[in-house]
Amino acid sequence: MDSPQFKALHWLANIDKSQITDDDPHVIQRFVLSVLYFATGGPPVDHTTDFTLKRRGGPWRNPTNFLSPNHECEWKSSITKGEGRGGGIRRCDADKNVVELSIYNELAGTIPSELGRLSFLRTLYLGRNNLIGTIPTELGMIRPIASISLQYNHLTGEIPQDYLRRIPTLRFLQLEGNPLKGKIEKDDPLCQMRNVYKPKNKVTNTDNTEHKRVLRVLTATC
Fold this sequence. Notes:
two-stranded parallel ribbon; single chain; alpha/beta
């Protein structure tokens, strides 16, 4: 009953004022983000919670509107620069699917595997927090993701290379500042990923298949 998943379900069923239904296309998205909140030290939320207040310290101390009655796309800090910023949902697409998640708010806890269910996510930034545990292999399920930044936390275990190299769109991977195990060699498929594209020949109007490097930035101290 103390698991982040249970807390998220309890919040959805009994506290969330949005009254989202189980047939809503965004119910999984809302559940996943609430699991992230509770898994990373988010304080308890009830019917009287003031989502604009700054807490004295600890995880999620800067207000981000997370778990407010608003749509998930509005779960973000009103402060974008300087002290007091906490990040949040930085961008959604036209259908209100989360595509950019960026939180730097002294998060403490583990990265939940449920993040792999955010199937429209393109940018994940959880760097410079106090996260522990391993990197979920489920991140490899997010097919359109282009940037994963988990640097300067306390993550341990093996780098899930076999899963990350399956992401065809991955361009940025930042893991430095974590006591991770494993080593990504320059000739590793993760570093040698290619994207096939076919530019048109303006003269003959034929396709010239070429290969372009995909993973442009890799920073890892491992």
